[in-house]
Amino acid sequence: MTATLTPQDVADGTPTPETPSVGDTAHLDAIPREGGRRHSVLVIGGGPAGAATGYWLAKAGVDVAIVEKKDFPREKTCGDGLTPRAVTQLQDMGLASKLEEFHKYDGLRTVAHGRTLELAWPDHPIHPNYGYVVRRCDLDNFVANNAVTQGAVLLTGTEAVAPIMEGGQLMGATVKHKASGQTYELRSDFVVIADGANSRFGRAIGTARNRAMPMGMAIRGYFESPLHNEPWIESALDVRDRQGNSVPGYGWIFPVGDGTINVGIGLLSTFSGFKSVNTSHLMTEWAHTLPDYWGIDPTAPIAAPTGGRLPMGSSVNPKVGPNWLVVGDAGGSINPFNGEGIDYAYETGRMAARLLRECIEGGSAIPLQRYPSLLDEEYGLYFKVARLFAKIIGRPVLMRELTRVGMRSRTLMEWVLAIMANLLRPDELGAAELAYKSAATIARVIPERV
């Protein structure tokens, strides 16, 4: 059960009978009701990045509160696929047995130009060679609850409507409890912004997306299918409409294991007609042209498809302030190769928690300033390669030729899979440098009209 506190609970620090006690709230008794509530760390957003931050902080004994504007469980536009990197983070958070309740898959089936390749996840010294498909309505719920088991306070149905600024310093947030309409303050020594791709709170304190960097757009729906428990997720690199005309973007089919499949299509802003693309039309055409073996009724999605835009390649800055950090989608930490953001949300949340713990233990906010360099060390070169790749695949003719060549070589496509999922082994990191140099060369020599 999600530990949801009411405004009255926030004021006096006392859980309701229906809500488990979450952390030590005895210190709140001395705070006047009109003064709101105070924590060491306030996390804005209870999705993957926010829940991971809250988990690792609470596990270390830090007083942390997470505010999430929706009530769990809640839907989220996503492919629902967990890569091996994401699985590693979830296992490290003690959720290995929980993951086993969901559909496990072995790798990627890629389809293009009349060819099909089934590519297993590579062996890796850190990450497993398998993934899971878990609907976000389930995933985000149990990951957030996992933070609660460690002592984090989780306030759902509660939106951070404005930052509290005093003397140029971020002191917390004014929040609104949606059910009651009550507004009150949550103050903290540190704030983590984890409110997702749109990040209203981030924009309110001055973060902004670099519009020269790629933006993704995706839409997905669920369909019943007899192949709902296939051991492969599937990606189509040569999507065409019902008349056989090539359409922008790539399609995916992810078996959910519950009688349904997640069907979606995504594209990047590097495509010249990005702003004029009708994603609902793309989704309709993609559903009608799915391979017959999936056995879906394209006119009967389980619910209306949903979509959204995704800032990619670390495109949102600044990511750190005097006493705040930006993590996950709110910082543009989404892989331009494949639109994957869950693993980076968990990883950046964990990184932020480590720095915050150092700050709290040392009595200084200075360690936060290492955050950008840590991000660059971990993702800098990789995201640079991915951004260049995004520039290349925005040129449909070139993309078709590259995929035509790639689909003829299993070895090449296995290497591409490892790069796209950021699963190169440490002894292969030179390959990332090579990929960057190759992508840079291609980007320079290919005419803009291609």
UniProtKB/TrEMBL annotation:
Residues 40-215 form the FAD-binding domain. Pfam families: FAD_binding_3 (PF01494). Residues 1-27 are annotated as: Disordered. InterPro entries: FAD-bd, FAD/NAD-bd_sf, Geranylgeranyl_Rdtase_fam, Geranylgeranyl_reductase. GO terms for molecular function: FAD binding; oxidoreductase activity, acting on the CH-CH group of donors, NAD or NADP as acceptor. PANTHER family: CONDITIONED MEDIUM FACTOR RECEPTOR 1, GERANYLGERANYL DIPHOSPHATE REDUCTASE. This is Putative Geranylgeranyl reductase. It comes from Candidatus Neomicrothrix parvicella RN1. The lineage of its organism: Bacteria, Bacillati, Actinomycetota, Acidimicrobiia, Acidimicrobiales.
